[in-house]
Amino acid sequence: AQSVTQLGSHVSVSEGALVLLRCNYSSSVPPYLFWYVQYPNQGLQLLLKYTSAATLVKGINGFEAEFKKSETSFHLTKPSAHMSDAAEYFCAVRGYSGGYQKVTFGTGTKLQVIP
Amino acid sequence: DSGVTQTPKHLITATGQRVTLRCSPRSGDLSVYWYQQSLDQGLQFLIQYYNGEERAKGNILERFSAQQFPDLHSELNLSSLELGDSALYFCASSAGLAGNYNEQFFGPGTRLTVL
What we know:
The structure holds 2 protein chains of 2 kinds.
Chain A: E1 3-7, E2 10-14, E3 19-26, E4 33-38, E5 44-50, E6 56-58, E7 64-68, E8 73-78, E9 87-97, E10 100-105, E11 109-114
Parallel strand pairs in A: 2-11
Antiparallel strand pairs in A: 1-3, 3-8, 4-5, 4-9, 6-7, 7-8, 9-10, 9-11
Chain B: E1 5-7, E2 10-13, E3 19-24, E4 31-38, E5 42-50, E6 53-57, E7 64-68, E8 74-78, E9 87-94, E10 105-106, E11 110-114
């Protein structure tokens, strides 16, 4: 079975500060990992994905994530937070259920950006 | 705009009633997923269809059912509604099966309120 754990349901950062959102995964097969963002009153949107190529993955809006197999982590970072980054972020992992692939989402981390 | 459409946007109904939520995937996408998002349960995967066939089941109640039609649109039927069914219901689509390199594209959601 596969799962992801997002540490911290709420994270607050000052505008211009580093954003670090934590995600640890568990997977019995080589993982494919994703970060999605949900802005208020909208659906989820893919930020970036890791599919066993480069371990440092760059996404949209200046976000990036580093796959660390030894730490089973896939933390999301951005060097400088903008007010527009305030949203909920979901980490997700590809796994299998009943022989078919499925994607399991974490519980989400709400990012607050303080002016 | 993800290309995934969901109707209706909002739905208000009473306990014990039955409702149908509709989803049209992105053009060419064969997989459709249904998710429930509530404040207390977070984002929960309900069910996945691929080209008309059920492929994976998550935390879907027996009172809920879904289907995918030959034109690839999908409907989620919720019956004997309870107050706790009030939530945002998202539909997502992807080109192929979950995981792989296939990003899921999310619709804007249907907000269901059960009074």
